[in-house]
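[Automated response] Your request has been received and processed.

Submitted sequence:
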Amino acid sequence: MIVTTKELFQHAYGRYAIGAYNINNLEQTVGLFRGNLGKSKSNGDPVDANKSAPFIIQISRGARSYSDKRFLEAMIRTAAEVFPEAVFAVHLDHGTEEVCYDCIDSGFYSSVMIDASHEPFEKNIEITKRVVDRAHAKGVVVEAELGQLGGVEEDVVGSVCLTEPAQAAEFVARTGCDSLAVAIGTSHGAYKFSGAQGIRLDRLAEIQQAVPKNFPLVMHGSSSVPKEWVDRINNAGGALKSASGVDEAQYIQAARLGVCKVNIDTDGRLVWCAIHRESFRDDPANFDLRPPGKAFMEAYAAYIIHKNTKLGSAGQLESVRQLVAK
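Generated structure:
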């Protein structure tokens, strides 16, 4: 069942965060759906109510152009039929104004993100307001961004600029956006922190106090970059040195401060990389793409279950279904 992020956030606010996972291919799609239903295996095991979670599928501009956007859309539609128990939103990640309009007009996306955070404050408001007006006219909800994260997201290179609480309140009021991605110290990619730094929960608390009550906040650049997966990649011939991400213990802390959506992309890539590197290392004579693909789907589903447990969304699927069915 495809729903809007607004519906998901109403249930999550202040209690847990919803995982927003980027996909690019069939294997990620299948693993993602299985994991969010608590199914780590491919043998038809039933939905595990204690592990099943609502979720957000994120499609980036890069994913849309990787082959053709219609392939991804068709896979998601098919997955919704194969896994009818799933409750999820389909979200455009880091869209330009033009791409947002394309997604809004398609009738397929329930949510879009307009990222004009690289623009001056007034220009960001102007662009975001145009997208909000067009999206709301078609029942699509809008995420915007204020402040800048470090690292690289698609073709945008960012330098850290924390979100100012007073500006966040003004931005929300003037644009009418439905959620706001805030910069609180994280970065895109596998190299988020050096040393013992973490997300700026103090700044997040100030932003929560400044924006309207129960207004959903979003945390980008939130992969945890687990050492286990980095080590597996490096032990299979990789060269990821000093990669570091968000402490998973901070997810719930952030959720209690208004973060309803946590973006996770890098971790999925690490799982993919480790499984495929190990597969080719351990079976160098293999030239069949399916064995590593099957191993990845199972590993990715198990990782999604783990992630949802840390986000607090595991076990929430049925109560969300009852809410959206009203």
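Summary generated for your ticket: The chain has 13 helices and ten strands. Confidence is low (pLDDT under 50) at residues 152-158.
If you did not submit this request, please reply to this message.
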